[in-house]
Amino acid sequence: MSGLKELTDKRLLACAAFVSRGGIVCDVGTDHAYLPCYLVKNGVCKRALAADVNPSPLAAARENIQRAGLEDKIDTVLSDGLDEISPKGVTDVIIAGMGGELIADILGRGKAFYSGAQFILQPMTKPERLRRWLWKNGFEIACERACKEEIYYTVMLVRYMGKNSAYTAAQCYIGALKGDTDDDKGYISKQAERLRKKGEGLKKSGSVQAQEYLQLAEKLDRYIKQG
């Protein structure tokens, strides 16, 4: 990414699509700062913070920011999640490329951001646990989109509402996906496949939980057909 103006990663582009215009973005776990550079370079946000817990990727991020000539608009911060970041002026917090449980942990420690920012979350694993945590801790999933690179990913636009939400077991695997796009259907189908495989494995071992997983898989299959 020489000029860093173009971004081809569908996962990161899906995150970028949720960013509010003209604000300040904090990218947690920024790695090489590709996303902050893209957002600032293309006028999606006016400023950005590129944060990472490890010095090595943060050094690479700094090099890319300098290469793009964006040192005056993107600051790098060595931080474990949001711990070392001020919430002042931050409109969007992006937490992408991590496990769902780690994202939940970062959010749980980031209460200072709840009132002023929206959250764009892209879990690599255990998205169902992240959704469950969000609903149990006062967040709403305002919108969600699936996308596919080599595998299926999901990106959530999340806001803190201060009110817990009721949810079903099936909703933990579907989230706010409408099931009206090929990527949505593919993602939900993969979740159903996971549940079915686990259910079949438990069935062979004689576990009473087997039917629970198999029924969940059927519910997801029906949701796809309805979408």
Entry summary:
The chain is α/β, with parallel strands linked by helices.
With strands numbered from the N-terminus, the spatial order across the biggest sheet is 3-2-1-4-5-7-6
CATH superfamily of the largest domain: Vaccinia Virus protein VP39
Spatial extent as radius of gyration: 19 Å
- Apparent shape: elongated
Strand percentage lies at: 15-25%
The percent of residues in helical segments reads 40-55%
Q: How many discrete domains? A: 2
Main CATH class of the largest domain: Alpha Beta
Structural class of the secondary structure composition?
alpha/beta
Give me the number of helical elements: 8
Terminal-residue CA separation: 37 Å
The low-pLDDT segments are: 1-5
Describe this structure as you would to a colleague.
By secondary structure, the protein is of the alpha/beta class. It has 2 domains: 156 residues, Rossmann fold; 44 residues. 41% of the residues lie in helices and 22% in strands. It is built from 8 helices and 7 strands. The protein has a 7-stranded mixed sheet, sandwiched between helices. Helix 4 packs parallel to helix 5 and helix 7 packs antiparallel against helix 8. The protein is elongated and about 60 Å long. The N terminus is likely disordered.
